[in-house]
Amino acid sequence: MIRAVVTAEPFPPAHEVARFAAARGDQCGALASFVGYCRGHAGESSVTALELEHYPGFTEREIERLAQHVSTKHALDALLVIHRVGIIPAGEAIVLVAAQSAHRANTFAAVEEMMDYLKTDAPLWKRESGPDGARWIEPTNEDYARRQEHGA
Question: What are 73-89's pLDDT values in tens digits?
């Protein structure tokens, strides 16, 4: 089962993980999750919000495609991806990725790989805002190197 959601609404990560865990089958031996939050600082700069733009429909399809690839590669029982778009104030959750499988190694690897894909391949455009103005955020060389390790 794959559930991929792109939403402008805030979501409660703990509630979503609990709901995901409650639906696990009896073959599930492991569940791993990651929650990414909007930081209040980026280096020396204060951040008040992160704005994420996307192409409705296309972004969802691409995240679902990436999720299907990760799920198949790591023999997952289930994969959950929730990603915010719009304006996200500092301190709020941006993304949740959770995976279930028979074995922990698969879940850890799947969550990490899915996050790397979201960072580099998902059609999302990010802009940080703060007292000094706004700036676009691009994936770093390190992001691309980590993503390359997975070999799409």
Answer: 999 999 999 999 999 99
